[in-house]
Structures are given as C-alpha cells and as structure tokens.
Amino acid sequence: MNRLALVCEDIASHASRLKKVAILADYLRTLNDRDLQLAVQFLSAGPALEEAVNHSLFELEEKTRLSIGHSILRDALQIASGWDLDTLRVCQAEVGDMGETTGLLMRGISEARPLTLSDANEIYQRLFRTRESARKRDLLVATYRETDALTVKYFVKVITRSLRIGLMSRQVEEAVAAACDVPHEAVRDANNRLGDLARVALAARHGELSAIEARLFHPMEFMLAKPLDKLEDLPSPAEWIVEDKYDGIRSQVHYQSGYVRIYSRGMEEVTGAFPEIRRAFEPLPGNGLIDGEILAWRDGRALNFNVLQQRLARKNVRATLMAEVPVVFMGYDMLLHNDRLLLHEPIEDRRRILVDTLGLLPSPILVSPELAAIDHSEIDRLFTLARERGNEGLLLKQRGSIYEPGKRGGAWQKLKRPYGTLDVVITSAEQGSGRRATVFSDYTFAVRSPQGFVNIGKAYSGLTDVEVKELTKVLRAASTDRFGPVMVVRPEAVLEVAFDGVQKSSRHKSGYALRFPRILRWRRDKTPGECDDIARVEALYKATVQ
Amino acid sequence: MQVEFRETGIYLPEIDLWLDNTEPCSATWISHGHSDHARGCHGRVIGTPATLRIYRMRLWLEEGEEEPETLPLEFGECMDWNRAALTAYPASHILGAAQLLIEYGGERLVYTGDMKLRQPLCGDTTEPIPCDRLIIESTFGLPIYKLLDREDAAARIITFARGCIEDGAVPAFIGYPLGRGQEIAHVLCQGGIRTAVHGAIAKFIPVYEDYGYQFPGWEPYDARATAGKALVVVPSHGNVLEASGKNIRLAYVSGWAALDNARSRSGAEQLIPYSDHADFGELLATVEKCSPKHVDVVHGYTVPFAKILQARGYSAAAPLRESARTNIEAEG
C-alpha cells in the first residue's frame, strides 16, 4: 500500500495520459498475483467484500460495496489527529477531499509503519464485517495512528472512491493490458462482460481472458449511434432497420428469476425510481439483459424529457407521482439471454429473441417497432412521422451488425436534425479553457420579452477560432461588468442557434431552456431588435408537450 | 499601546504611525515591497533600503502628487519616532522584507508583516523577537500547510527542470513577479540550467543582483525560442503556455501547492510547496518564541488561527475577522 500511494502521487504529477498509464503498468508488472488483484481492485472500484467474489452470475452489488459515512471518517480523524471539530471543518473545506485531509493532518503524528496491500485489505474486510459505527471508527483510528501518513491518504481515498489523480477507468484497463502484455481491447471486452477489473487482470496475466463469462448486475457499456448529418450520405437505405429515436433515459434492465436491476447510461443504478418497470420484469423466467429506453408515456406516445426528469431524481417514488408521470420501458436490443451472451449475434437474431421474451409481458413494457424503407425518400417520410409522434428522429441499425459496447462505430446511425433555430442576443460571455483560455468563447444568450431581454441558454461551440477572436473584441467593447472569468455585455451581438428541444427551467429568467443548443452562425446582419421573442419559445414548448 | 485595525492598514495613534497603509497618509511603515503592502503616495515612508527601492520602482505618481520622503531603516538599526523606538529585523520573506519592533512606554510591540522563520532561497535568516504584543500574519495558518525548506525546494526545482529537458520538454515554473520568481530563477541559473525569465519578473533581477544574488546567464523570455531552456513566468502566463500546444510542462512553486487541488487551480502538473510565508508550524513556533501577552492575527486564516492559539492558552484575536482564504489570489 505504501508503494501504491507513491505510485498514485507519481501518476498525479504527470499530465500526460500515456505517462500515467506507463507508470501504473510498470508498477503492476512487479506485483505477485494476489497484490495485482488487490491493487487493481483498490484503483478501479474500491474495497470488495471477499465472500462475494466467487458468485459467478448473480451478485448483489449493494452487499459488496464498503460504505463508511463521512461522519465516521471525520470522527476517526478527530480522535487520531487531536484537532478540534472547527479546525477540521476549515481544513476539510480548503482541501476538499477526506483522504487528503487525513493524510495531511496525520503527518508527524502517525508511526509510519508500513502497510502492505494485504494488510489494507484485511482492514477493509474487518470494516465490512463490523456493524457498529464506534467500532469501525476505532479501527480507523488505530490504522491512522500506525500507518505512514501518505499511505493513510490513499487508504482513505480507496474507501471514499475519490483518487483524484487524473486516472480514468479506461486508463486503468490500458495499464492492466500493458502490464499483462495483452491487447487493450481484450481486457476491455472481458471487463465489460464481468464488471470486475481485478479478476480480469488476473485472467489477463494467465492468458485466460477468453474464458471469462458474462455476469449480470453490473452496468455494461452501451453501443452508441453516430450522428448522420445528411440523410443522402446513408449508403443502401434498404440495408438498415429503422426505429424511432426516443428522447428518454437510455437504460439496461438486468433480470434473473425475479431479481431486477436497472442501470442508466451514466452507469448509475436507477431501479428505485421506476418500480413499475422492476415489477413488470419480475415474473420473467430465466435471465437476461435488455437495452432500451425509459420514457414518460401517455395515450400511446412519449412525453417531453422534462416530464420524465421529475421521476429520475427520486430514490423512492410516491404513487401520486407514478400516476402523474407514467413511464414505459421501450426495449430495443437484447445482449444476454439465459446465460448466453448475444453481443456477436446479428441484430435480426437479437431482436427476434427480444420480441419472443418481451412479447409475453404487458404494459409498461414495449418493444420498439421495427420499420423499414427502400430508399432515402421513404426514410425521410418515416422521419416526419417519428417527429409527429413526438420522438426526436430516427435510429438506423445496419442489418447483420453485431453489438459493439462503448463504440460509436457507424453500424448505428442517428438522424436528428435540429428541432428549430432561434435568433438570440449575447448578454454575457465567459473565458474558455485550454486553447480558448485567452478569448471569450462561452456565451449566455437571451430572447426579447415585454420585460426586456431574458436569458434562455448558453452555448460554446459552433464558431471558428477566427470568429471567436473577432467576437471577443466586439464583446469587450460592449462590456459593462466583470465577475472573474464572466463578462456582462450590452445586448448587441446576435447569434443564430440550433437546438433539439425546449424545456421549462428555473435556471434562466425566461423560464425555459434549450436542449443541446449550438451556434449556427454569428448574425452580423441582424440587430437585437430583430431577435426572436419569448412568445415563439412558448409556442415551440407547447408543441412538444401536447 | 493603542492599536487600531482599519480596512486600509494598522494605525498607532499615540505615535501617529501607520503600518502598511495602502491609502495615502502622513506616515507609514512599509514591511516589504509586495503591492498589497507597498502602495499609495504617503507623506513619509519608513522601510528597509531594499523595500524603499522597490516601493519607488512601483510607485505611480498622479499629477500634482509629490514624491514621498523616504526614511531608510537598516536591519538591526534603531530609529526614534515620536517618543517611540523603531527597530527593523529580517522577516525572511522577499528581498528587504522586515519585521518591526516598536518600543513605547515600556511596551514592546512586534509587527511581523509577511514573514517566515526558515531561511529563504534569497534573503536573510531571522529569529522571533520577544515582545508583549504580537501582530502576526496567518496566510498558511492551518495545520494542513507544511512547506518545503530551501534545500528541498531547490532540489525539486532542479530535478524537475532537468527531467523535462532530458525528455525534450520545456519546463515552465509559475512564480510571482516579486520574490518567488527571482528565487526560482536564481536556483535554476545557479544549477547551470539555461533560464528564460518573463519580463515582469526580470524587472527586479537587478535589485536582487545588487544585494548579492547571482543569476548567471539568465535571458529574457522569448516565446519563439524556448527549446532546451527552463522558463520562469508569472501565473497569468501559465495559462497561455498551457494552451500553446507546445511540449510545455508546468510546475507551480507556491505555498498553495501544498494541496492537490492546486493542480486544477494552477493548471500545473508538478506541485512544489515552497513559499515566502511561514507554514503552520513556523507560525506556531514564532508565537511560542515571542511569548507575547496578546496576539493579533491579521492576514489569511485569521479566525481559525486565532482560535487555535486560544486553545493553546494564548490571548489571541482576529481584529479584522477575515475568514478563510480571503487572500486566495494573494502571493503565497
């Protein structure tokens, strides 16, 4: 663990991603099997409860996660360091990370005894098994007092799962691959099946990656669609399965004999927010993993995404909200069925199994209708129909294609087209970062209203570097106030923005916000008086809610 | 002795003297040349010769304003002032920085200004001055701040610069225009590394040279010719370098670099926690050795640091009640 701490510090102090991966790979290579497994476990997922590791397919995630509240960590630090609560609070506020604060405050106090990875794991296992807060705290105090302070920093960071060394999970996979001399793709695929990089690392070292079987109840990576800018660019239109593109929450349902979990695209578990979907899957025999979309749904069509968001924020949902915002799960792909991984089956076969499986289920479970077209003009007509049904556009899936997790390879294409455009005026601008640090590249913009200009959104992409530079000059000349990186300007510069929808929002004064706004062009030919007004925004919003 | 803490500075009414007043006044002591201490056109200004020289370089006279009368006070020298005796001691902060001992009516008051106890890379060593009342700063007045001493800081600076140059990258050090910038440049030049110095920092190199610090072979910074050199630039230029797309690796030399979040704040990958301010341990040691009857804490984490002193049995106050990190942008 002492070495792991030093390696983490070294990784943090290099900005280059390649260098970070190389440092980690060099370290992993030197470890024996047991330590390799522990180090990868700590870096990728935090401590794991050991008894659970051998469950192959069916594993309850909540049981295997070590959960220690902030107050226990703070109490332990208070006792171990001797600092009063007030001082600890100020320190913690400045540092912003419990592990780092603990490491900093234990300097000069702890005994600097070495801690091996196995020692650390033994302590984590004891923390798992201890129910009582006071005993967990005492165990932490003893560890803080005995262990070298830098090691304590990372001992705590592993618990809080906040390493903050600029190492993304993808890079840990790369380092594992490099350390075990296997291709990154192979590690990535195996980890996508198993959801346990520590065991994948061990298998990679022993050449057993291909033997790793899929396991349910960890989010797998989603296949992504490539935006299709022009419909005419789509080759052989008849070779594609056509579906509506829904504006909901992309989700995976995992089920096994009455046990159901739902994961969203952000790899978050959202089962609690959608009890009617969980219940609908409970009667299904066998096991499976279905890819689809959760939608707010009434009278046979999807409601605005805005409506759906009311459901997402909840851990537990009241019956009234379930009645106000009814939801459905719109399934469109099946990745695993009765222990058989289907990723490499062609889409037609996967869809057939999906229909066979879900066809037995009543609402709120639906299967996304499969459409087809023979030429571009028919696809165009389907697009218009999808829009009339209140959906975003179309999703096109190449016949015969396999499911490629985490890829945006082009076997799936999405046809969206902007929902509309507005002429808006810039009211404030913010300095960019990186390459755009010296110019104002992020703009907040407004539409006209009886109360003057009211803000409706913010966008930062779409203009060329030259335009941004010029616009910066214009905005500087119109500046009226400055708050750090933000400059308030007189409403003069007009932009034409495109967006994918309108939703209600309390963030902006207009009461509305645009979805995915992007700048189409800088309208030097227009004056602020020629901007669109709030009435047009209201009309656009109403068109989507009804 | 009466002490009034005001927004613009500290006033001693019985002897009609201000300490580090930032607004024009009849007479002020200036502890050192940083612009949050040495500014404003005053009637009379007392400071060490180096501080007065920097103050004059930075002074911008409005029309009709007269050049202030400057009264130099060398380290260890004593000056009579309105029935008080003023003595300057090194503060080990930037070049010329001084603590001031004021003896009046049998009472000893020490104003540290910005200070540290450990020897700086450029500057004099100091000792805490026993006194009845101590006015001390607390820029790094929390136990999370523990900073490097000069040898370790110099070694880290040199190692990082050599490592980058060997890898074909350009090391760039972010330092403040007065103090840190010259210290970094001094260490690099002495270490035999070709060093290019940003203009805002280079401006003060002649002052440091006159006080005996060498910068062998330093050259002015030129964005078009950086290969094989170490750069020393001001914080605002760090962003420009980071964005330049060249193979630049940034190091941040500052007390704020003691925390990992300095990486995202500064954009630097290498953090070298070295400052011209005292760290927490030095602040505590200063108070202990001065053994004052009362302590006033005036910059930085004043409220928490005063509380920490109270818990150790000192009479301590934060008269201006600055809360945490008011001087986040200050030179640390």
- Residue stretches of chain A low in confidence (pLDDT < 50, at least 5 long) are 53-59
Strand order within the widest beta sheet of chain B: 7-8-9-10-11-18-19
The CATH first-level class of the largest domain in chain B comes to Alpha Beta
Mean pLDDT of chain B: 92
Question: In a nutshell, what does this entry contain?
Answer:
The complex is a heterodimer of chains A (546) and B (332). Chain A has helices spanning 2-12, 17-29, 33-44, 61-64, 70-81, 85-95, 98-105, 117-129, 133-146, 149-160, 169-179, 184-194, 197-205, 275-281, 305-312, 319-324, 347-358, 376-388, 465-477, 534-545, and strands at 226-227, 240-245, 249-256, 259-264, 287-298, 301-302, 327-337, 340-341, 365-367, 393-398, 412-415, 420-431, 440-447, 454-459, 479-483, 486-489, 494-499, 501-504, 512-515, 518-522. Chain A has 546 residues and is α+β, with helices and mostly antiparallel strands.
List the helices and strands and how they pair.
The complex is a heterodimer of chains A (546) and B (332).
Chain A: H1 2-12, H2 17-29, H3 33-44, H4 61-64, H5 70-81, H6 85-95, H7 98-105, H8 117-129, H9 133-146, H10 149-160, H11 169-179, H12 184-194, H13 197-205, E1 226-227, E2 240-245, E3 249-256, E4 259-264, H14 275-281, E5 287-298, E6 301-302, H15 305-312, H16 319-324, E7 327-337, E8 340-341, H17 347-358, E9 365-367, H18 376-388, E10 393-398, E11 412-415, E12 420-431, E13 440-447, E14 454-459, H19 465-477, E15 479-483, E16 486-489, E17 494-499, E18 501-504, E19 512-515, E20 518-522, H20 534-545
Chain B: E1 4-6, E2 9-12, E3 17-19, E4 27-29, E5 44-47, H1 49-58, E6 69-72, E7 78-81, E8 84-90, E9 98-104, E10 107-111, E11 133-138, H2 150-166, E12 170-174, H3 180-190, E13 195-197, H4 199-202, H5 205-210, E14 219-220, E15 230-233, H6 235-243, E16 248-253, H7 262-266, E17 270-272, H8 280-290, E18 294-300, H9 302-311, E19 316-317
Parallel strand pairs in B: 3-4, 4-5, 5-6, 10-11, 11-18, 12-15, 12-16, 13-14, 13-15, 16-17, 18-19
Antiparallel strand pairs in B: 1-2, 2-3, 7-8, 8-9, 9-10
